[in-house]
Amino acid sequence: MEVTKKSLVGALKTTADLLDLLGVGDDPFRAQAFRSAARSLEGVQDEVEALVARGFAGVPKVGKAIAADLLEYVRTGVFGPLEDAASLIPAGVLSLFRVRGLGPKKIRALWDAGIDSLEGLREACRDGRVAGLKGFGAKSAASFLAAVEFALSAQERQHLSTATEVAEGLCRVLDGLEARVAGDVRRGLDTVRVARVTVTADLEVVTARLAGVVEGLERVGEKPLFAGRVDGVPVEVAFAPREGVRGALDLMMGGGTAYREALRAEAAARGFDLSGHGLFRAGEVLDTPTEADVMRALDLPLRPAEYREPEHDALWKALPHPDQLVTVADLRGMLHTHSTWSDGAASVADMAAAAVRLGHEFLGTGDHSRAAHYANGLSIERLQAQLKEIRELQAAGVPLVAGAEVDILEDGSLDYPDDVLAELDYVVASVHSLFTLPPERQTERLVQAARHPLVTILGHPTGRLLLRRPGYALDLDAVMAACAERGTVVEINANAYRLDLDWRVALTWRDRVRFAVNTDAHVPAGLADARYGVMVARKAGLTPAHVINTLDRDAFLAFVQAQRAGR
């Protein structure tokens, strides 16, 4: 499987965390060396092939030893320092990293106290042991109990980006066999249980291709299906022995359980038997190479992959055809991005250049405001210095739009005064603190911000981190109604760890508000996350007309001016 820059950075960061958990031993700086290398690698714009070709030479903070380990990782898929550290830590202790609020130091304290699994942590939170530990307390125990319950409920799922990379990697391994991404990834679900792929090939060919690639590879009963794991991610590869039955296989692998069962029931009611083996009538298999061929034989409309969830049942026929839905190519401006001015890893100019290389026309800046001190948020003086730099770059032809991600404070006011906000070309307003306010206060806080005449976009509206923490408690419909009333754009945050706004909410409000698919990129590579936000938008039935950053730069600036004028 192909090693990506994201996986290289992830291996470095995870190694640093595990070394911190184990203790620094004789080399107190080793963990920091891996963490610094990860940060540096995030900021370089070269692709993996170019980095490997020069042995990672020239990447700051990546010394000879780490470079050698990275090269071995690219060659074998194994990062030695990570494997060495993980081998010293029980699997249950490793799982504690999935609990929000737990870092290496606190996990070490729990481990030393004999709490070495998610289930064990849940019980220790309930029986008072966590509350009694030094540095924890009753409030922490209650918080961790909620977080561990969430982690346990999410432990069988993967982020969309992770599953997408695995599924697309399998397609490359199975090149030449008409390999296609299937299942949850094809439908663009925000989290994925299994990365699925379908191919046209016989059992022996598929077995030979997957040998040594998929761990624990096994045939699933008599089904035309193999299962196993790739890098810990559950995978399924379904095979059609010939083209004539591929359509039935793609349908059966292209929807959730409820969709498959309903479709099979519809087929049975019409005298057919539908399964992954094909579409049968009176014991004879029909020639159906595509999904459309199957549905034509059944005299049923073909339901687009994006619309195969229960939430679509009553309305999918009224939603736009997939050819009309927004695509990554429709996005002309990248809004809500970060640079080295706050907590990003690249300069404004480098981020703009990366956006242009991806085919976009302009980049909107969105560094943090002063309340986000943990993220090197900009004081008013630093914001004005950044604006000066942006205006100079604009004069030099760099396609930039000057914005900021401004914190929404506890009372709903914004982190910069209005006269400062008015100097910006646009404003993203987001919550980064006080997630546990009572629902009424949280709702009023966001409603007030959404109604502010200088707020262009409401950023990551619920604050959720998928598989890590739920969104904060609030009346989201009231917030959406305030956005609709004022004309405030609602963000679909394309970062795969957020995907916030949820597609179900966007589907409900698609005809009442405008949306922006924003990457929230902190590194140049993060700009490519737009694809995941577009998946969310497509599930919500959004066309380019629904998405504000499909406008060109001049049209976007005109939109902001009209919005500020209340038009």
From TrEMBL:
Gene3D superfamilies per UniProt: 5' to 3' exonuclease, C-terminal subdomain (1.10.150.20), Beta Polymerase, domain 2 (3.30.460.10), DNA polymerase beta, N-terminal domain-like (1.10.150.110), DNA polymerase, thumb domain (3.30.210.10), Metal-dependent hydrolases (3.20.20.140)
The organism of origin for this protein: Deinococcus daejeonensis
Keyword Nucleotidyltransferase: yes
Stored Pfam families: DNA_pol_B_thumb, HHH_5, HHH_8, PHP
SUPFAM superfamilies: DNA polymerase beta, N-terminal domain-like (SSF47802), Nucleotidyltransferase (SSF81301), PHP domain-like (SSF89550)
MF terms (GO), sorted A to Z: exonuclease activity
Keyword Hydrolase: yes
Domain (DNA-directed DNA polymerase X): residue spans on this chain: 3-309
Annotated ranges, domain Polymerase/histidinol phosphatase N-terminal: 333-410
Name of the protein this chain belongs to: DNA polymerase/3'-5' exonuclease PolX
InterPro entries on file: DNA-dir_DNA_pol_X, DNA_pol_lamdba_lyase_dom_sf, DNA_Pol_thumb_sf, HHH_MUS81, NT_sf, PHP_dom, PHP_phosphatase, Pol/His_phosphatase_N
Highest taxon listed in the record's lineage: Bacteria
Keyword tags: Exonuclease, Hydrolase, Nuclease, Nucleotidyltransferase, Transferase
